[in-house]
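Shape matters. Shown next:

___
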Amino acid sequence: MKLLLKEDVDGLGFCGEEVEVKDGYGRNFLIPKGKALLATPNNLKAFNHQKRIVQAKVKKITGIAQEVADKISAATIQIKKKMGDGGKMFGAVTAQEISDLLKAKGIDIDRRKIQIQEPIKKAGEYSIPVKLHPEVTAAIKLTVEGEKVVEKAEVEEKAEVEGKTEAEEKTEATEKPQEKEAE
């Protein structure tokens, strides 16, 4: 019995292939499960027509994904994260942050398509892959810059050097906005 496979069947063939199988296997398993249909001239013609329609849709989707990939590759993203002593970052750069930065540049992609292999916890330049389609992958150029966090001990040392107490600094901070309002 000659059958036309509607989907991939392990050990038999791939979708769209015409295969020769035993009558019982075709009649009792492949055709009732919807995995194949008889290889008649009409069925071949209809199947090839559907195949061309699906291929056109896939080609269109791949083209759109490639356009987005080109935009992503052209964009460079910069992010500033707070760092402590020794250059250690508080937390890590997440896929959601990268997605938000891309959205700000006019490129809207889902955070789940951004594939960060290992957490980004240091300043530097990174190339992060984005899988837009099974056939299309783009790379984001990400630059992570560190901001040094001023700790309380350092603030108190500066205040002592300047000869001011913490209470004096707070009063000055509250008086300055009031002076501007009075003017």
The radius of gyration is 31 Å.
